[in-house]
Structure formats: structure tokens, C-alpha cells
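User: Predict structure, ligand magnesium ion.
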Amino acid sequence: MILPSFIYNERVKNGQLQKDEAQQKTVGLLDQLCKKLAYYRPAESSAGLLGTITNIWKKPVEVPKGLYLVGPVGRGKSMLMDLFYNQVPVQHKQRVHFHYFMQNTYKRFHELKKLYPKGGDPVPQLAKEISKNAWLLCFDEFQVNDIADAVLLGRLFQNLFACGVVVVATSNVNLRNLFQNRPGADAFKPFIKILQQNLQEVELFATRDYRTGRPEDEKRWLFPINEENRAILDHVFLRESKGKPVKPSALQVMGRSFIIDETADDVARISFEKLCGSALGAGDYLALAQRFRVLIIDDIVKFNAENLDMIQRFTNLIDVLYEQHVKLYVSAESNYEFLYDQKDRKAFFERTISRLNEMQSQDWAEK
Ligand SMILES: Nc1ncnc2c1ncn2[C@@H]1O[C@H](COP(=O)(O)OP(=O)(O)OP(=O)(O)O)[C@@H](O)[C@H]1O
Ligand SMILES: [Mg+2]
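Assistant: Predicted complex:
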């Protein structure tokens, strides 16, 4: 078995990675887990008569604690987890973005539910199926988005751990803060306990954001408008607001209230239709830009002769966001260069394009 630390040190030696003490400590923990997993098999996987008989004479094996790597963005959490995943001598393993895992889990949950008599509980069966396929689960960007997730996750993970599953995950949110400050949060607390019992939380305070200076790593103008990009923005929202509670905010502009439904900490999220499709003006945009550090806009459509008032508002908006240095994330029908491809007024939109260009750079976001 080649341990993660060996590969990590090799990469440091050949200059692929910069030496980082916090990362090295974490790699040490990943080494230990690798070693433990080399000798571990969940009880379930030795099923069958023979397995059952031999197991009677053995002490029940202790399930190794998994790891929960948590920390700010770009610290190398995903990179280290992948390193571990590639080295760990386990055949039945799966590495998956948590969002996709949840999608598949819901799909299978509803299929099983149909097969069960009314009131039957498909969760134990679901956990069995998942653990049979892979008993080492590595989740990138673990998060709990809504009450439906919270309810299913609690019971599912309880069953998964009972099957002897080991979990390694990366996240921007500490275990104790998962799904907190939201309606139903109290009901989720027992699940946090279960996670804390089965996962060792490791805070990765690497010295720097290793993404800096690499504009290709973070795209903030996402297109086209689809489920995948929506999910990325969901994650951005959670990450940038550090999991703080989501609530509406009212901005007072010239004696009126401008209400934004989804805000958390210094992050706001709003649809393009609401922001540029109604009678808002530069004053509203300025209030928005002064109040929030990060703005997420969903579903920007292309401009045409029918929505010319939108293009005017959008241009105003970008001017204000640029001047106030707001970090902007969007989902749009197309890249910004092609938002307006009619000949007339092209020059007028050029400045917006140029500003958006500058706003995409990593330098600009870090300032
Ligand atoms: N020690 C290092 N030296 C050089 N590059 C590094 C180092 N650590 C990480 N990187 C690189 O920095 C980038 C960001 O790392 P990674 O994606 O693992 O961060 P993360 O902590 O998972 O961030 P997020 O919370 O946003 O998912 C990657 O391209 C990774 O390869
Ligand atoms: Mg990551």
C-alpha cells in the first residue's frame, strides 16, 4: 500500500504542490485511516452462511471513524480527499459529489417506497443497497440544504453506519452548524450527534487559498441555465454565507422597501426577472451593492428587441456592482459576450462586457 503522505511528499518534492503544514497534518490522519481500512471489513460484507458462522467466534470489529474535512475555500480539502481515495486499499468505495449522491438516493427511495406496503420504511433497505455497492463513501461538498434532506439524511446515515459504512467528506460548514438556525433545526440535532460519533472533524486551516491566481478554477458566470448550474449556485450561496440562516431582507430606498427574499449574512440571491424585469432603478441597485458583498443572480436571459428595458437596467446594475466591488455569481442563457448580439446598441453594451470580463478574474474577486 502506498500511503497518501508518500504521494503528497512526492508532489511537494517535484514542485506540483507547495508544502503546507496544515495539509501535512491532515494527510497524516488520512494515512492512519488508510491503514485501518486495509484490515477492516464491515460485518455485512461477510454475509452468507459461512460468514455468519465464522463471525460468531470473532469479536465484533470496531468500525473505524471516518473523517470530515472542513475549512474555507481552496484549502485543498477535495485534493486531499482524492489523494486518499486513490490510495486507500478498498475495493468497494465510491467518491461522489454530495449533491449527486442525494439525487440518486431520492430516486431510489421513491422507487422502493412504491414497492413497500403503505407506511413501510424503505430506508433500511436503501442503506443496505448503498453499503453493498460501496462501504467506503467519500462525499465532496457535504451539505444539508432543506428540511427534506435533513429528515432523510438523519435516518439514512444512522442505517448506513449500522451497516458498518465509513464516510469521508469535505465541507465548508462545521458539523455543529449543519442545518442550524432554520425551521426544523432542532429535529436535526440528533443526526449531528450521530455524525460526530462516526466522523472525526478536521479543520483544515491551510495557509492560503490555493485557487488564487487560477481564474480557470472558479467560474462565476455559469451557462446555460440548467439543474447542474443551479446546484453549483446553491453551493456557492451556502459556502459564501458560511451556512448562516436564510431570510428576507428589506432595503429602504427613497421611502420605499426593496425586499430581497433570499439573503444570508452578506450574501443575496435573486432572480434576474425580479432584479431587472421590474421597476427598479440605480438607487435600488446601489442599496443592494452597499449592503451585500456577494450577489447571486439566477436565470439571466438573452436580450432582444422585446426586453430592451431590461438591458438598460442590467447595464446600470453592472456599473454599480463594479464600482462597489461586489462579487457576482450568475446563471445565464449564454456567456456575457453573447447576451446581446444585435448590431444596434452593440457599442453601448461593450462597456458592460468589459466590466464583466474584469469581474470574472480571480484578482478582482480577491481584492
Ligand atoms: N499545497 C498546495 N499547493 C499547490 N496547489 C494546491 C495545494 N493545495 C491545493 N492546491 C490546489 O488548489 C486548488 C483548490 O484546492 P481544492 O479544490 O482541494 O480546495 P477545497 O478546499 O476543496 O475548496 P472548496 O471548499 O472551494 O471546495 C486545487 O486546484 C488544488 O489542486
Ligand atoms: Mg472542494
